[in-house]
Amino acid sequence: MSTIEKYHLIINELSGSGKGKKVAKKIRKLLADKNLPFQLHKSTYPGHTIELTKSLAQDISQNLPLTHLIIVIGGDGTLHEVLTGLGEQFAHIPVGFIPAGSGNDFARGAGISKDPVKALEQILTAKHAKKLDIIQYYDHNQQIKGFAANNVGIGFDAAVVKKANHSPSKVLLNKLSLGSLVYFASLIQVFFKQAAFPLTITADEKIKLFEDAFLVIINSHPYFGGGIPVSPKASQLDGKLDLIILPKRSFFNLLYLFTLMIFGGKHLDHKDVYYYQAETISLKTTYTIDSNADGEELVYQPIDFQLKTSPRYFWI
């Protein structure tokens, strides 16, 4: 039987181009029908979720045992902000997650149902929190620490995300369930503009230089881009990060590799795919490169990142 006495719903109504609002309405009704006490906390501006989380975490941590649970209703970007709000100080506080975004890669990797009714039932029937790995990164240039639920990317993927996020047609196409068209159009445009770049990686103290890195992504679970299994061997339970590096080849080569990713993860055997598993990874470039964490844009700068896993607790 659950030990939770009250649920705090952190809601991003704009996630998934309005999907968050619909899911939240359904969850509120389900909790009310079950006579379970809950409180709403709506995120209304960028960074608000971080503030809400910090405030709630401070209140929750003052009362032991932990009988109040934060439930996040939103997309991967909303969860990213919740993890940022928890930081290391409140890393022991578990959260529940009901996916309501457009990609929902974290839910897919963690085995959380995409059906909000079933996702809530997973939370309500769980007897204890489950420990899962997320990504912790340190930006030496900015001297800041950050966290990611899914992945950290530099180069091509990050530039595509940036292009797609600022597309004037993104909101409309997401409402029509055609958001993938924005991503694909951005992918084509960025491919022909983005140059390869030299990259130095250190994986568990082993150093390697790449002269023509193009797509670089670090995952804590298999998925990115709304369900593409880019790192099929990645696990949230092994204390390791998975690193994928693709050099720049032809556009058709890239499409072929993405096809291999989608259909069974056979891309890992391809000669143009560099794959590493390590407990700690560092990435360094001398070029100014786009970067992102969970689809959230980071500073446009030369990269000097140190990455490792960090445990967090999820009520699933």
From TrEMBL:
Organism (species): Carnobacterium alterfunditum
Occurrences of domain DAGKc (ranges): 2-141
Keywords, in A-Z order: ATP-binding, Kinase, Lipid biosynthesis, Lipid metabolism, Nucleotide-binding, Phospholipid biosynthesis, Phospholipid metabolism, Transferase
Gene Ontology MF term list: ATP binding; kinase activity
Assigned protein family: Belongs to the diacylglycerol/lipid kinase family.
Keyword Transferase included in the entry's annotation: yes
Name the UniProt record assigns to this protein: Lipid kinase, YegS/Rv2252/BmrU family
Keyword NAD: no
Gene Ontology biological process terms from the UniProt entry: phospholipid biosynthetic process
InterPro entries for this protein: ATP-NAD_kinase_N, Diacylglycerol/lipid_kinase, Diacylglycerol_kinase_cat_dom, Lipid_Phosphate_FormReg, NAD/diacylglycerol_kinase_sf, YegS/DAGK_C
Cofactor(s) needed: Mg(2+)
